[in-house]
Amino acid sequence: MVQKLEMLQETPSQTAGPYVHIGLMPSYTGNGQIFAQELGESPIADGAQGEIIEITGSIYDGTGWAMRDALIESWQPDAQGRFAGQDGADPNLSGFCRFAADAESGEFTLRTVKPGPVALRDGRVQAPHISLWIVARGINLGLQTRIYFEDEDNSADPLLARIEQRPRVETLIAKKTGAGQYRFDIRLQGDGETVFLDI
Amino acid sequence: MLDDGPLIPRNLALHPAPYDPGYKTTLARSPALPLLSMDSSASEETGPRFGHGSLGALDNNLILNWTRGKSPAIGERIVMHGRVLDERGRGVPHTLVEVWQANAGGRYRHKKDGYLAPLDPNFGGAGRTITDEAGRYQFLTIRPGAYPWPNRGNDWRPMHIHVSVFGHSFGQRLITQMYFEGDPLIPLCPIAATIKDRAQLDRLVAPLDMANSKPLDYLAYKFDIVLRGRRQSMFENKPEGM
Questions:
Q1: Is residue B105 part of a domain?
Q2: ipTM, interface predicted TM-score of the complex
Q3: How big is chain B by its Cα radius of gyration, in Å?
Q4: Residues of chain A contacting residue B145, judged by C-beta atoms under 8 Å apart
Q5: A20-187 CATH choice from 3.40.50.720, 3.30.720.120, 2.60.130.10, 1.10.3120.10
């Protein structure tokens, strides 16, 4: 016998299921009356500093079908790389947003400010990115990934540098489609499968 | 600045695998390539905070919140309560817990649910609350009904309540489901069975908690939730002089 480690184990995940919107985005399914204020409607308030951008995309399953029932959460720092609650952070940025694939088209849009770079503990700097967490029916554990930007210098980003198959780096980089406009598609499986994270 | 250390890496062995043949939808929705593992950074160690100011007084009362207190929902009255803890056994205070569920007949108030059981005009099926100083939370609700779903020939979901928890870090984000002690449908459910270790599945089954039940009012079920913890911060690899 050995001494006991006084540790608990994380609670196992279960799928969010097809009706996740009821709980997290009630107005999406016509249930807006239940709460006075829905959480995560926008990551920014009027007056947020930095460049306002819009990221549009779809989440494709392994058959190439754009999923209609996925729900996404995003988390990001302000334009200077400071997260809400940190000293000097932009008071008009919560950094948190909930959005869903459109029930008809399967397309989502995130309107936010472009984030600033964030340093690691060892001083290396991560290129600007937005963290994503994706849940849906058929996803047993929420999928983590990141959005980087094609018009930023991503060459020294420590996470992107760890991707062995270099063409897969592109799956994490939003493509610029116009002024302040980006496209970011997510592929759960098959050709161009997005790099998902265990982080 | 105080450094709590990176998040403890997830033990993926205790979670369901992405692809499980018994749960057909996972086939086309499961990544086939390995996840990219890395130490957490501020992007995962920080996370949204929600204050009591964002919540309404009835938000954790699913019996009354849909009608704003006018008319109670139909069903067996229960209290679901417990603590949110981290892997070190510490309560996680002031964190958001959200729940959603079917009504007493097994029907969700969602445009995609067309089950035969009727909607309850007095039940919305969602609630939310913020844990107290010790990480405790509670909801007053009704026991959700079991219901059939299209998967294999005759699959049924056991009674369950969906639970979404934040913790203090975006990397702690977790959604799971609470099942009810004694439900004979649990061992038959392909979604419950995505968890292969029965001891891990048992951690999602809430026991009947008579000590916290209220005579002539409601039964109680206890459901504790454990989120990822933080690695201890000594000997972290920092540049000299920092």
A1: yes
A2: 0.97
A3: 20
A4: none
A5: 2.60.130.10
Number of structural domains chain B divides into: 1
Burial-class residue A4 by CB neighbours within 10 Å (0-12, 13-18, 19+): exposed
Question: Residue A142 has what pLDDT?
Answer: 98
Hey, which residues 2-41 in chain A have their CB within 8 Å of chain B? 6-24, 26, 29-31, 33-37, 39-40
Does residue B21 lie in a domain region? Answer: no
Decide if B160 is catalytic: yes
Long-range contacts: A82-86, Cβ < 8 Å, 24+?
A: A82/A116, A83/B42, A83/B46, A84/B46, A84/B48, A84/B49, A85/B46, A85/B49, A86/B46
Contacts of B114 (CB under 8 A, 6+ apart): none
User: Kind and range of the H or E element at A183?
Assistant: strand A181-183
Q: Which residue has the tokens 């302000």?
A: A78
Dihedral over Cα of A156, A74, B18, B151: its sign: negative
CB of B144 closer than 8 Å to CB of B101: yes
Using an 8 Å CB-CB cutoff, list chain A residues near B3.
Answer: 121
pTM attached to this predicted model: 0.96
Instruction: Determine, for residues B176 and A11 on separate chains, whether the beta-carbon distance falls below 8 Å.
Output: yes
Q: How far is B207 from chain A (nearest CA, A)?
A: 16
CA distance A116 to A81: 4
The upper half-sphere exposure of residue B189, i.e. CA atoms within 13 Å in the direction of its Cβ, equals 22
> For A111-149, how does the pLDDT look when each residue is reduced to its tens digit (9 = 90+)?
999 999 999 999 999 999 999 999 999 999 999 999 999
Q: Which residues pair with A100 in a beta bridge?
A: A71
Kindly state whether residue B104 falls inside one of the protein's structural domains.
yes
Query: Any CB–CB contact under 8 A between A136 and chain B?
Result: yes
The CATH number for B76's domain is 2.60.130.10
Q: Does B111 touch chain A (CB under 8 A)?
A: yes
- Parse chain A into domains and list their residue ranges: 20-187
Region of A194 on the Ramachandran plot (φ > 0 left; ψ -120 to 50 alpha; else beta): beta
Structural domain range at position B194: 47-227
Kindly report, residue by residue over A38-78, the tens digit of the pLDDT. 999 999 999 999 999 999 999 999 999 999 999 999 999 99
Question: Taking a contact as any Cβ pair under 8 Å apart, which residues of chain B between 138 and 197 contact chain A?
Answer: 162, 164, 170-171, 173-177, 191-192, 194-195
Using a CB-CB cut-off of 8 Å, the residues of chain A touching B43 are 75-77, 118, 126, 129, 131, 146
Residue B131 lies in a domain: yes
Is B23's Cβ below 8 Å from some Cβ in A?
yes
- Of B25, B100, B225, which is closest to A23 when you measure between CB atoms? B100
